[in-house]
UniProtKB/TrEMBL annotation:
Lineage: Bacteria, Pseudomonadati, Pseudomonadota, Gammaproteobacteria, Alteromonadales
Protein name as it appears in the record: NADPH:quinone oxidoreductase family protein
Stretches assigned to the Enoyl reductase (ER) domain: 10-322
SMART domains listed in its UniProt record: PKS_ER
PROSITE patterns tied to this protein: QOR_ZETA_CRYSTAL
Biological source species: Fluctibacter corallii
Length: 324
């Protein structure tokens, strides 16, 4: 079968599209014939050796897929051959077939197209977990989302609205802000045109933000860290801007807020039952129209390098998808 292979940690341009062995069926797993695979910022970090985990090489990147089960391993009773599913693969998704633990596979309603279903797994699930389990956001609270037109930022805007929050979207261009507004953002801030800290102060009447969904890092993080409300929660999602900021802990002390790490991948491993419940709620919300997946572009699997370069360059509005 065809797959994208990382032979050594290096720039994404060194990935190869090649023939590899078809995965073998094993106990507790299913094999999925992949129809679509979501492309995520951490995929690029993983390939370059910059992510929290470093798998042995060679490996196939790709953490989320939608497809049809072609084989069911021993001990799996709740899934059947021919069933259409979404799956968290962690690795292996950039391929025509992938073996996945049955605990991380869920049936997907026919109402959700494959491209959108694949892109629902990581970005929306990260935002959902962050705002529910980590941020404990409440109706009427203020949520600020940085990188609000990217895959997970846009998901946070939608989910924040579904949970009753007043959503402030922060983006680098008016075009990106327009997309955030179309997905439910109440207040728009273009940080390339205004001082972010002052804009947040004005938007919150000086009270600060209850929950920040922070994806960018660098100066954006620093502005948010000085704009928190009492009892606020600053959620650390990632560092798409490239700079991992250093945090002066006295800010949390003086302002009485929490800095909360969000590592969704680890959450799925430590709390698989909660992960499954979250995904079922997300799919129900999708059917009800409370959330949706904005697919910027769907490219052939062989074009994975270009897809990753666009994601890493923050050129994507919504999600990028690969199709074997």
């Amino acid at each position: 079968m065809k797959a994208i292979v990382c032979h050594e940690f290096a720039p994404v341009e060194q990935l190869s599209y090649e023939e590899i062995a078809v995965p073998e069926s094993k106990p507790g797993h299913v094999i999925i014939h992949v129809e679509a695979c979501g492309v995520n910022y951490p995929d690029g970090l993983l390939v370059e050796g910059l992510y929290q985990m470093k798998p042995d090489t060679p490996f196939v990147p790709g953490s989320e897929v939608c497809g049809v089960i072609s084989s069911v391993g021993e001990g799996v009773t709740h899934l059947k051959e021919g069933m259409r599913v979404i799956a968290l693969t962690m690795l292996g998704g950039y391929a025509e077939q992938v073996s996945v633990p049955a605990t991380h596979v869920l049936p997907v309603p026919d109402a959700i197209a494959s491209e959108e279903a694949a892109a629902l797994v990581t970005a929306h699930a990260t935002a959902h977990h962050a705002l529910l389990q980590r941020g404990n956001i409440q109706p009427g609270e203020t949520l600020l989302v940085t990188g609000a037109a990217g895959g997970t930022g846009l998901a946070a805007v939608q989910i924040g609205k579904a949970l009753g929050a007043n959503v402030i979207a922060v983006c680098s261009t008016d075009e990106k802000l327009a997309l955030a507004k179309a997905n439910g953002a109440d207040v728009l801030i273009n940080y390339s045109k205004v001082d972010l800290k002052e804009a947040i102060k004005e938007a919150t009447d000086g009270k600060g933000v209850d929950v920040v969904y922070e994806c960018v890092g660098g100066d954006t993080f620093h502005a948010c860290s000085r704009s928190m409300a009492w009892n606020g929660r600053l959620l650390v999602i990632g560092f798409a801007g490239g700079e991992i900021p250093k945090f002066p802990v006295n800010l949390a002390l003086v302002k009485g807020y929490s800095v909360v790490g969000v590592f969704w991948g680890a959450f799925t491993q430590h709390q698989p039952e909660d992960f499954a419940k979250n995904m079922k709620q997300l799919m129900q919300w999708y059917i009800e129209g409370k959330v949706k997946v904005v697919v910027d572009e769907a490219l052939p699997l062989s074009d994975a390098i270009n897809a990753l370069k666009k994601v890493m360059g923050r050129e994507v509005k919504g999600k990028m998808v690969l199709k074997p």
